[in-house]
Amino acid sequence: MAYSNFKPIIWSKKIQHDLDKFMVFKDMCNTKFQGEVGRGKTVRIVGIQKPTVGTYVPGTSIGTPGTPNDNYLDLVVDQYKFTNFMVDDVDDAQAHVDIMEHLMRGSASALAEEADSYIASTVAADASIATEGMVGSSTQIASAGAAKAAIDAALVKLWEKGVKTGKDTTIVVSPWFYSEFKNDLTEILTNNVEMVNRGIFGMYNGIPVKMSNNVYNDGTDDYLFIAQKDAVAYASGIEEVEPYRPEGLFSDAVKVLHTYGVKVVRPEQIYILKVHA
């Protein structure tokens, strides 16, 4: 790969596309703010709460209208992760494959792992979810029946909050929990390569079930999520893709900067199961 022929805009889109493919927790998030990210930026999300419903008495004033702009949360883009790698000219000349292509995909995978883990830990630590009563107590899962019972109890909590579960909802579990729960899935998708690459292994009550190695663990419990898509906002972007020639070396190198932020915006629409084997 010649430095002069490097096309950063094309690579930047490629990295973002590959990065999104590798992520599991991103699919449970609202990503409509993707185009508004940047280093140090804050995305103000307006109208978090629903409007108040009043009773109209004919012939009387309904009062002053509400001001949605007073209801907002700030999603701060405060995570900056990078990769920095090079390919020696000799190795590149002797290779039978496109080394840089493989390294770029590896870069996307590594950045995706970091971002996925950050989403999981940020949601797990959010106090507003506990305030809504949407965090379960530590529970041992020693059988398939116990796994199903834990998921069913979590769904009841969401339904009681008025959450309409379906394809806009996501269940994210860890590998060991999935091994207990898989026989209760109403639809198995393990033969669908595209779905499996996105972490989706089946459906339960019409909800996609995803598996991830990046679930948060507090030292005792894994924190598994059932969440509506509007519950968590996630914004990210590949801020920089910069090719360069390292001083004193016969190599091509690339630096990649990934910026992102996460915010729980509707804590009543997410339930956290704290489980251990």
Question: What does the model show?
Answer:
29% of the residues lie in helices and 30% in strands. The termini are far apart. A hairpin with a 4-residue loop joins strand 9 (216-217) and strand 10. With 277 residues, it is an alpha+beta fold.
Instruction: Give start-end ranges of low-pLDDT stretches.
Output: none
H/E element string? Answer: HEEEHHHEHEHEHEEEEEEE
Approximate strand percentage: 25-35%
**Which fold name is given in CATH as the topology of the domain at 131-231 and 267-276?**
hypothetical protein PF0899 fold
**Helix/strand class:** alpha+beta
Question: Mean of the pLDDT scores?
Answer: 83
The share of residues in helices is 25-40%
Give me the Rg, rounded. 22 Å
CATH class of the domain at 131-231 and 267-276: Alpha Beta
Per CATH, which architecture of the domain at 131-231 and 267-276?
Answer: 2-Layer Sandwich
C-alpha termini separation: 49 Å
Helix segment tally:
7
Backbone shape = globular
- Strand tally, please? 13
The largest β sheet comes out as: 8 strands, mixed
Chain-wise SSE layout:
Blueprint: H1 8-22, E1 42-46, E2 72-76, E3 79-88, H2 89-94, H3 99-124, H4 127-131, E4 139-140, H5 144-160, E5 169-173, H6 175-181, E6 187-188, H7 193-197, E7 200-204, E8 207-211, E9 216-217, E10 222-228, E11 232-244, E12 251-264, E13 270-276
Helix pairs in contact: 1-3, 5-6
